[in-house]
């Protein structure tokens, strides 16, 4: 009889260990804590709200070109939303462009941009997070680069 109780005790212990080690696929108490969409969104550079305008300059303090037309706002939004966070930390040179993004609630965000050459990705950095960089594939950056070319005669280096 003693062996029977020992067997039942071992069986209960092993069963509870096996059940406790089961996978829950990121769910805790019926709540999915890490959806794949959230993980994907965490790898994109975030804009802080509804953009009302943005300005572009080649150097901090240099002359700026202000843009607030619908098409330019869409080009910038698409450019940023196609960015992907890079896992490595990079030591970057001075950016090609500074973009000051202005939002409805008087909030402002400064982005640094390095434009990729033919076949290269372009790179973004939020000035509030200088340890993270975001890259944009050449195809996804094409419209933004065309926008930069269209205003290049208005930009000057000090």
From TrEMBL:
Signal sequence interval, chain numbering: 1-20
InterPro entries, sorted: YhfM-like_dom (IPR058780)
UniProt keywords, alphabetically: Signal
Residue ranges of every copy of the YhfM-like domain listed in the record: 50-152
Alphabetized PROSITE patterns for the sequence: PROKAR_LIPOPROTEIN
Protein name: YhfM-like domain-containing protein
Organism this protein belongs to: Niallia taxi
């Amino acid at each position: 009889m003693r062996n029977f109780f020992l067997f039942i005790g071992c069986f209960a212990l092993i069963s509870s260990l096996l059940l406790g080690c089961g996978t829950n696929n990121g769910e805790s108490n019926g709540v999915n804590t890490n959806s794949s969409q959230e993980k994907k969104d965490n790898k994109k550079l975030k804009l802080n709200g509804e953009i009302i305008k943005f300005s572009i300059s080649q150097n901090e303090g240099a002359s700026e070109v202000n843009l607030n037309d619908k098409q330019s706002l869409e080009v910038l939004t698409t450019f940023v939303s196609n960015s992907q966070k890079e896992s490595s930390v990079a030591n970057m040179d001075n950016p090609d462009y500074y973009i000051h993004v202005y939002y409805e609630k008087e909030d402002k965000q400064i982005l640094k941009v390095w434009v990729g050459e033919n076949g290269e990705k372009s790179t973004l950095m939020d000035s509030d997070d200088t340890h993270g960089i975001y890259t944009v594939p050449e195809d996804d950056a094409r419209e933004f680069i065309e926008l930069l070319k269209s205003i290049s005669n208005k930009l000057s280096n000090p």
